[in-house]
Amino acid sequence: DIQMTQSPSSLSASVGDRVTITCQASQDISNYLNWYQQKPGKAPKLLIYDASNLETGVPSRFSGSGSGTDFTFTISSLQPEDIATYYCQQYDNLPDTFGQGTRLEIK
Amino acid sequence: EVQLVESGGGLVQPGGSLRLSCAASGFTFSSYWMSWVRQAPGKGLEWVANIKQDGSEKYYVDSVKGRFTISRDNAKNSLYLQMNSLRAEDTAVYYCARGGVFSGSCYYYWGQGTLVTVSS
Fold it and tell me: Is A44's Cβ below 8 Å from some Cβ in B?
């Protein structure tokens, strides 16, 4: 199985800050990577698909980049409603696997 | 509006069985891959199984192979997960998720989840 390693596991930032989360795959997954946001007590929500494509309706402050084994998720200007846990997910090979999550908090 | 509503969760003893259902609306159910994804309490996400539009292809994570069966009824716009020989480590919130037309591996829409607790 392909292992997905996210860092950091938790992050505290201020409103307006630029926030970056990284995700590393244990092998080359091309651009077969998605990013999800999960707010407490809620289902996950797709934000970014195919590494860099913004899902319809998702604010443009969210972005993704990378290919191969190294990927980055960025929030350009953190908003209070962005408090959540963020997960990367690879789908190059079954089983689809998720990173362990990055818990984002407001300072 | 796309809606996915899971049901069927609950408390079951180890070795027992449970059948989860997911009622879909707001889209042409028969046109999309469907999946189950679970989340153990306080833990991350784990893909469980997915099924092609016509049910001709089904895939499972190794830990549930031979115990869980995914199925669908396109006439009823419903997805199912039959879970047998349940173990404590199957305790989780189970989410129904809609995939794409060509791939089951991008989870565009999710239900609210149903909690399965395996305990004596």
Answer: yes
List of chain B residues whose C-beta atoms are within 8 Å of the C-beta of residue A100? 44
Q: Are B34 and B96 within 8 A, CB to CB?
A: yes
Q: Is A49 on the interface with B (CB under 8 A)?
A: yes
Can you read off the two tokens belonging to residue A23? Answer: 């995700």
CB atoms within 10 A of CB A7: 14
Rounded Cα–Cα distance for residues B22 and B34 (Å): 10
Task: Render pLDDT for A38-89 as a digit per residue (tens, 0 to 9).
Answer: 999 999 999 999 999 999 999 999 999 999 999 999 999 999 999 999 999 9
Question: In this structure, what token pair is assigned to residue A69?
Answer: 């084994």
Q: Give B4: exposed, middle or buried? Use CB within 10 Å, 0-12, 13-18, 19+.
A: buried
Optimal mutation site among B36, B45, B60, B65, interface A, most CBs of chain A within 10 A: B45
Whether A43 and B95 lie within 8 Å, measured CB to CB: yes
